[in-house]
Amino acid sequence: MPNQLAIDEFLALDLPLLDSRAPAEYAAGHIPGALSFPLFTNEERAAVGTCYKQQGQEAAIELGLGFVGPKMQSLVREAKQQWPDRQVRLHCWRGGMRSSSLAWLLETAGFQVTLLKGGYKSFRTWVLAQLAAPPPHPHPRRHDGHR
Q1: Among 9, 46, 50, 98, which has the highest number of CB atoms less than 10 A from its own CB?
Q2: What does the mean pLDDT of the chain come to?
């Protein structure tokens, strides 16, 4: 089971950061420095989402497995070529099935994977909290000639 970290700890790691969301999701916004390593194409993601809404989770999982199964070998080969140290950080939208599935695949191939708890959604929440926080107060100037 991959290690799952909260956003602060996750961002502090100095490891390659992989975004397992579809290319359109990545293009719409991603964690700075993240590399797109999608589990599904845009079309596959849309099909799985539609299947989930119309037929439920079990049918959507089976459809997703049908898309991913033939890609498993190429995903592992690409990962080994791109990240030979075999240590990566990984996330999807909510820290759910896509990143967990890709983490399982990479760990099976000998990688050490750290997942972002809550996925990209937790990163967005964290950024908004950082922006809403009051700025730090500068040190008051001393009036005796010292700073």
Answers
A1: 98
A2: 91
Domain count, the chain: 1
What mean pLDDT do residues 44-67 have?
96
Instruction: State the CATH number of the domain containing residue 107.
Output: 3.40.250.10
CA distances to 6, 58, 134, 144 from 140, rounded to whole Å, are 34, 61, 17, 12
Whether residue 92 lies in the annotated active site: yes
Residue 147 has pLDDT above 60, yes or no: no
The whole-number average pLDDT for the span 46-55 is: 97
Dihedral sign of CA atoms 100, 103, 105, 108 in order: negative
Q: What is the DSSP letter of 138?
A: P
Residue 136 in any domain: the answer is no
User: 93 is written with which tokens?
Assistant: 């939208």
User: Mean pLDDT, to the nearest integer, of 105-109?
Assistant: 97
Annotated active-site residue in 17, 31, 88, 92: 92
Helices (runs of H) and strands (runs of E) counted in the chain: 7, 5
pTM of the predicted structure, to 2 decimals:
0.85
> pLDDT category, 139, cuts 50, 70, 90?
low
Largest CA distance in the chain: 74
Question: CA-to-CA distance for 35 and 31, rounded, in angstroms?
Answer: 9
